[in-house]
Design a protein that fits this description.
The protein is an all-alpha fold. It has helices spanning 2-10, 19-45, 57-71, 75-114. It is 79% helix and 0% strand. α1 (2-10) crosses α4 and α3 runs antiparallel to α4 (75-114). The longest helix is centred in the C-terminal third of the chain and has 40 residues, at 75-114.
């Protein structure tokens, strides 16, 4: 999934996006990187302190992208944007699942060490 996302970022043939959507993708990638950094910090420190991922952040992203696309009149670009949104939705779901699993593992380790 990340490779396909990178192809959109690099604007490879068949992965072209309108400029306004590329800016939104950059914002998403930055947020996703912060979440992954937070997960790495939690693993290193065995901390359950969570910087919560906003549950509506993806919905907000989707609204911004759809608003940008409404201004565009390129059917091909719309297909690429829809594919990107499906891809980012999957990445977002996997990241959220990973965060939940890491938090549960840290909690279990703490309970085991307290016993």
């Amino acid at each position: 999934m990340r490779i396909a996302s990178l192809k959109y970022r690099l604007q490879l043939q068949g992965f072209e996006l309108p400029g306004s959507v590329r800016v939104i993708q950059q914002e998403y990638d930055d947020r996703s990187a912060r979440v992954l950094d937070d997960l790495a910090d939690r693993i290193e420190t065995n901390s359950t302190q969570v910087t919560p991922m906003s549950l509506d952040s993806f919905a907000h992203l989707e609204q911004k992208v759809l608003a940008c696309c409404a201004k565009e009149e390129q059917p091909e670009a719309e297909a690429h944007v829809r594919a990107l949104m499906t891809l980012l939705r999957g990445i977002d779901a996997l990241t959220a699942s990973l965060a939940e699993e890491i938090t549960m593992q840290i909690d279990r380790a703490r309970v085991a060490s307290a016993d």
